[in-house]
Amino acid sequence: MSKKLIAITDDDNLITTLLKDYLDSIENYKVLLTASNGLDLIEKLNASDILPDILLLDLKMKEMDGVETTEYLKNHFPTIKIIIISSHYQSSFLGFMFKTGASAFVPKGISPVVLKQVIDKVYDSGVYFMEDQIESVREQISSKAPKPELGDDTDLSEREMEVLKLICMQKTAKEIGETLFITTRTVEGHRNNLFTKTGAKNIAGLVIFAIKHNVIDVNNLVL
């Protein structure tokens, strides 16, 4: 089984060291690199032949903070799934951070066991929401959400709607394929079409789109 490659970016060296030691002790996990801020991270990514699967990213850092780093990575390193883990966690930031490109947003006080669950869920399905986050995101987008007016270029097919709903249930491409009796490659094709039609940058963006346009009932989401 291939290892899950992880990067850590935090300006607190003690936090970085403790996280690295903990994650490296987990079977099938490997901390590929650590950085003290966004600029340091980008420099190391550009110099590396291998990219991490997951990035644990702090928000408040000098030189280049977590928001700027997330925006940059989603444009230049879109395969990296970003988990914001910050002492500056606020539910009011959720909608913005998920829309910007984060796959999960958790407080630094999170337990190591839960952090592993978050990493595994993001690695497998691309997004993780805590129990109290779905309603917060829904409230943040509902007041500004326009009535859906999808033109021909953005109309979702019946199959794309099915795939989108299963993505919101945090199903992997393999699980979606098994549910719909289609190949994993076909699922990935539908998912790419969804990105194009909705303008979402990642799986979290697709979930927000689905909530915003009433594709799924927020109460039916699996956390």
TrEMBL record:
CDD domains xref list: LuxR_C_like
Pfam families assigned: GerE (PF00196), Response_reg (PF00072)
Gene3D superfamilies named among the record's database cross-references: 3.40.50.2300
Entry superkingdom: Bacteria
UniProt keywords, alphabetically: DNA-binding, Phosphoprotein
Family annotation (InterPro entries): CheY-like_superfamily (IPR011006), Sig_transdc_resp-reg_C-effctor (IPR016032), Sig_transdc_resp-reg_receiver (IPR001789), Tscrpt_reg_LuxR_C (IPR000792), WalR-like (IPR039420)
Segments forming domain HTH luxR-type: 149-214
Response regulatory domain ranges (all copies): 5-123
PROSITE patterns given in the database record: HTH_LUXR_2, RESPONSE_REGULATORY
Residues bearing PTM 4-aspartylphosphate: 58
Recorded coiled-coil stretches: none
Protein name (database record): Response regulator transcription factor
